[in-house]
Amino acid sequence: MDYVKVTKENLEKEHICCAISNNKDVQVASKKAWLRDRFDEGLVFLKSAERGKCFIEYIPAEYAWNPIDADGYTYIDCLWVSGSFKGHGYSNDLLAACIEDSKANGRIGLCILASAKKKPFLADPKYLKYKGFTVCDEADNGVQLWYLPFSPDAKRPALKACAKHPETDDAGYVLYYTSQCPFNAKYVPIVERTAKEHGIPFKAIHIDSRDAAQNAPTPITTYALFLDGKYLTNEQMNDTKFLKLAGK
Question: Which of 94, 129, 186, 189 could link 56 by a cystine bridge, Cβ 3.0 to 4.6 Å?
Answer without folding.
Answer: 94
